[in-house]
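Here we describe the complex-level prediction in full. Unlike the single-chain runs in Section 2.1, the two entities below were treated as one system.
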Amino acid sequence: MTPPAPHALRADALTLAYDGRRVVEGLDLEIPDGRITAVVGPNASGKSTLLRGLARLMRPEAGRVTLDGRDIRSFAPKEFARRVAVLPQQPVAPDGVLVAELVSRGRHPHRGWFGGRSSDDDRIVAEVLEATGTAELADRAVSELSGGQRQRVWIAMALAQRADIVLLDEPTSFLDVSHQLELLDLLTESNREHGTTVVMVLHELNLAARYADHLVVVDGGRIAAAGEPAAVMTAETVGAAFGLDCVVTPDPVAGSPMIVPIGRFHRA
Amino acid sequence: MSVAPAVVPTGPGESVHPLAVRVAAARSRTHRRATTVVAVGSLFALAAATASLLLGAAGLGVGDVLAALVGQGSPKAEFVIVRLRLPRVLAAIVAGTALGLGGALFQTTLRNPLASPDILGVTGGASLAAVGSMLLLGLEGPAVSLAAFAGALVVAALMWGLAWRDGLTGIRFVLVGIGLASIVSGLLGWLITRAEVREASEALVWMVGGIAGVGWPELGTAGSTLAVLLVLTVAFSPRMPLLALSDDSARSLGLDATRARATAIVLGVGLVAVATALAGPIAFVALVAAPIARALVGHGQAALAASAVVGAAIVLVADLVAQHAFTGFAVPVGIVTGLIGAPYLLWLIARGNRRGSDG
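The structure predicted for the assembly as a whole is:
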């Protein structure tokens, strides 16, 4: 299926800093349209910061991020939110908020100044609840859900924005393996069926290699490697970026590169 | 603009999605509860206001009170009702509404139940400026109210300036505010100990808050300012559900979180200043009204309207107690709300510590 409309999200010489401390420096990146991009890297490599920069959650110290050739800072907040949805790391909902009401908040970018809702809002919310398998939870409180359910609800909220690009910061952290897979399948489905461009920061290298069309390895605030997982995920790259001795072998299920770490006691 | 992709292909025609009905139902459940709380709270406040008009040493019956209200009463009844009791009741409503709503705006946008304008020194700033203008500059009447307003704004601006660091996070704002509150209350104590005894008793109202002796002119100013602020708050309120999430979430949903929070704080400062200029810093109303309203409304709502109603009800009831519960003498209403509020504050801090959170 072809994407709904071509979008070009890219970073040019992007430098991002917290209190003057540079975390991402002079980084160039192009996000392939209509594909799934996974951003991986060791702790404190700047991968989450990079995502926040792409998501307009941080003001660049230098360089810029553009969407379709336009600096993302020149978009009005709602205008940008209709094109790019972001799921921040560990979002928090007030105690007792009902699932349907929280997901409805995802419609905010489509509402006017006084918050009037259109008749489409409830239908779209219903659709994303269905797509994320949270329809049964519609009138439950978010705070009483399990971690996996809660994460699907947040994704539903992001999907309710109906943006062509969805950015997610470690959407699978704190989930057990089966829920991680469930979530990545859900994002893949959104990508395959509707051409949604997905960019996610992931911790788990093997899942990143399996689910991503495009893999970006960030190390020390710079891009260490980027491209198809098969080309990027080599023992050399992983060794250099993560300081990890490993063997790379084809994933017996998906055929994507699979990292098998070695460790001190199993060296040949 | 591009056409957004449909997550689920929609069927032909305009048939209503069965799940959409449930979504609407869940939403209206949240709404209904808030409406009920506002309605019941208003009735309760109305009952307290009626009791306040009827009770008292003047020995007036229901008929006398009604007659006085429509301008047909005896001169004595008219004096007691129109000059004394009615302004007092209206002052309780205006101050309570403003404090309840101001507290709700602060607590929700700063995402901390301790982040109430009375704890953060905003009401203190209003009091200090009022007392200072009276004792040092010899001002009276509306000029004192204006000074109170300026004082609240100055403290809020200081807090904002000191807490700002590449954005505004709730906890830093709260800590800076608590620091400013102690400075302000220290200065206030110093001013009052310097003053003569007669003035000090007047100044006491500015320390604990009281609504005895409020006149129609001040009430007119406060009421009309409140009306304007209420309209602005209603217009602002659609942003509250997003501000209650994290800043990143609010931004990713297309809200300029910093600007929205600044707007909420300015509205809150205005509301608190209206109340303080009229009645002094009626202790703890801003702190307790919103949590009660949020607990009653539930569903994680900011409960702005309910907070306003609960605030008014608290001040009305506290004033009834202040006037009639202590035989022989009446105390300022702020003493009574202080008695309610202080244990709540202790509980809040103790609970926060037990959880190991910041409250």
